[in-house]
Specification:
Layout: E1 2-7, H1 11-22, E2 27-30, E3 47-49, H2 65-76, H3 82-91, H4 96-101, E4 106-107, E5 120-123, H5 126-141, E6 144-146, E7 151-157, E8 160-166, E9 171-179, H6 188-195, E10 209-210, H7 219-226, E11 231-232, E12 238-244, E13 265-268, H8 282-285, H9 289-294, E14 301-306, E15 321-323, H10 326-333, H11 337-350, E16 351-352, E17 365-366, E18 385-397, E19 400-401, E20 408-411, E21 414-421, H12 439-475
Parallel strand pairs: 1-2, 1-9, 2-6, 9-21, 10-18
Antiparallel strand pairs: 3-5, 4-5, 7-8, 8-9, 11-19, 12-18, 13-14, 14-18, 15-18, 16-17, 20-21
Helix pairs in contact: 1-5, 1-12, 2-3, 3-12, 10-11
Amino acid sequence: MIDVLVVGGGNAALCAALMAREAGASVLLLEASPREWRGGNSQHTRNLRCMHEAPQDVLVDAYPEEEYWQDLLKVTGGLTDERLARIAIRASSCCRDWMRTHGVHFQPPLSGALHVARTNAFFMGGGKALVNAYFRSAEKLGVQIRYDTPVVSVELDGDRFVAVLTAGGERIEARSCVLAAGGFESNREWLSEAWGVNERGERPAENFLIRGTRFNEGVLLKALIDAGADSIGDPTQAHMVAIDARAPLYDGGICTRIDCVSLGVVVNREAKRFYDEGEDFWPKRYAIWGRLVAQQPGQIGYSIIDRKAIGRFMPPVFPGTVADSLPELARKLGLPEAAFVETINAYNAACRGGTFDHTALDDCHTEGLAPAKTHWARPIDTPPFYGYPLRPGVTFTYLGLRVNEESAVHFGGRPSPNLFVAGEMMAGNVLGKGYTAGVGMAIGTAFGRIAGTQAAKAAKAAKAVKAVKEEQHALA
């Protein structure tokens, strides 16, 4: 019998598998996807948010625990378990050396990744390189890996894990188990059920795009909740960003994100602005824009900039719609021309000049305009003008399983002795809402490593108990 069974193939699952194997356990990892699509959403990531008290290799200055916590507290609005959040924060300060031993390399921030040189460590080659490195290391250490093996249910004896059942009908037993199979973001039926019908009679989720893997359908999450596992989080809350409306339904990844929002204005299909584009630095606010667009008519918006903004943001994969005048841009985007020109003219008139500096919270703002733009407000008056259509892009959902410091799944408030969970399936303990760049990887890495360690301990304890029973039976 296998000591530790890991279900999933992303960052959290791989961290769990590696830690369990390093602890001496035999490990089997089941990945639902084919080998070429392995890695879950982690293959689309770029960086890890890291606490550090002083400059460290690719990280400049300092990013102390309390500042990290305050950043997380701000984006979640207090919907976070401080005890678990601080575990992830502290773990982020000392995990990189371990990551390097498994083949992960880091690099300085990319030139288009503003404001994160101090807070985030970037993976050389991105998330795909990271998961490939982990898979290589796992194979070298003797972790058994099986692809194309979706798990559809978990067999329990009360709160104790017994076995899993695969989609192919195979029953696999293990002494302990780590679940790290992702959220339900690619289950469009579940998303639609969660979001329901809005006041305009629309089903918003029908217009959502999925930034990540198509394999995260939440099958195990639902199975565990149905089996009595304690859940946490709102099913409508997610890491949801504004991405190019022309992106593919699945696996668009980082390159479909539109990063020029704070440099211009965003309007809905009625050509009206609806939120402060300059509220804070982009890495702290990019993840609110998907939900904002989801609340607009038709779940669509348009990011509008002029020539002055070009070169100041990471260019998206699709080119913007270009026009030499505002009326022409409105027509090309299919927006009401008069309303669009009126919105831009009102914004331009409200801009109060200062010293524009997109690397700081500058003094360029609007006056007498609702909603205000509090930073980086410059008139959109220099042709050519550019427009990018926006749709909500779901990265991962926050509904998950409740855990403790040992990442154990809870049933009726009691932790399971041998069933653990990591990654998206428990991130809602820390992320009740909101997001800040790189924190998902911090949570997955911290609790993946914890879950793997605890699963190995549980397996060792189970073997010890079995040995004692066998000895007692022999003596009898």
